[in-house]
Amino acid sequence: MQTTGSGLIEVSHALNLTSLGLTVDQERVYRHLLRSPGEVPADLSGVDVRAVLDQLRDLEVVDDLHHPAPPAVVVDRLIRRRVEQTSRELHRLSSAWVMVRDLVEEQLRGRPVELVERIEGGDSVNRRVWHLASTATETMNMKTRPRSRAEPDEKAEQAFHRRLATGLTSRTLVPAASLDDPTQRAYALRQHAAGDHHRVSDHHTRQLLIIDRSVAFVQLDPADQWAGAVEIRQPGIVATLVESFEAAWTRARELDVPLTTIERQVLRSLAQYDKDEAAARALNISLRKYRAHVADVMTRLGATTRFQAGLLAKDRGWL
């Protein structure tokens, strides 16, 4: 390090605040204020000190009286700001894969990909959807019932389950009335168990599928699922549909998945035994496994205490 005539220290460290987002001039002024709080540098060749101080105030590195924030606070703020910037940049870069997919689509179709395209017929829609879903990382699905005539065959369903097992995130929203049908309920439970997270809405829902928050499919005719769909890639429209789905998802309730035999036994044991060790021995499972079951059941019930879990279980008819 070298000292300038104004008393400012020239920073030559390999690791300094510039690596966290400050400019060289901002760091030099901040270090000066650490040594002399409130004392504005009188001379800094080629630098508008007042402008630098304004920048530091905007970054919450110094206050209005030119007193510096503590180093630990400054570093923490700069790290958080840098992480947020990096996160935004990663999101922007990841969106580039959408361009790759569009280019591939253009190559396959032999024509430009349209931002809004009408697709005639349920079979054509299914082929387009399953082609895109085969490489997707996230799907959002809103249905009028869990399973429709347009659902894929058993082989395709198994392929979907394999995608779920290898990282695909999928959420599906279905209306409560559709679950009165035992076949529909069984299908929803099967998909939910495979990793397609289902929630139930007390309101009527429309057919909507969003893939990777970049492509949406909306049914052409609400009364005829075989009429076809509109494929939408226009970013503003897709973003609006994503917001609508998220709002409906937040209002919906969890799918009431039946308890397994061991989960029922664990719930009963909460009222029968004072100690986890005794309960685990009675159920002939390890203490670690028992506590894992207890945590899972409490999460499903939304309970914060074991006593509350017992009350909620009784209310739901689980005990």
Automatic annotation (TrEMBL):
Instruction: Name the source organism.
Output: Saccharothrix variisporea
Task: Report the SUPFAM superfamilies cross-referenced here.
Answer: C-terminal effector domain of the bipartite response regulators
BP GO terms, sorted: regulation of DNA-templated transcription
GO MF term list: DNA binding
Q: Which residues form the HTH luxR-type domain?
A: 256-313
Question: What InterPro entries does this protein's entry cite?
Answer: Sig_transdc_resp-reg_C-effctor (IPR016032), TrmB-like (IPR051797), Tscrpt_reg_LuxR_C (IPR000792), WH-like_DNA-bd_sf (IPR036388)
Lineage: superkingdom: Bacteria
Protein name as annotated: HTH luxR-type domain-containing protein
PANTHER family assigned: HTH-TYPE TRANSCRIPTIONAL REGULATOR TRMBL2
> SMART domains, alphabetically?
HTH_LUXR
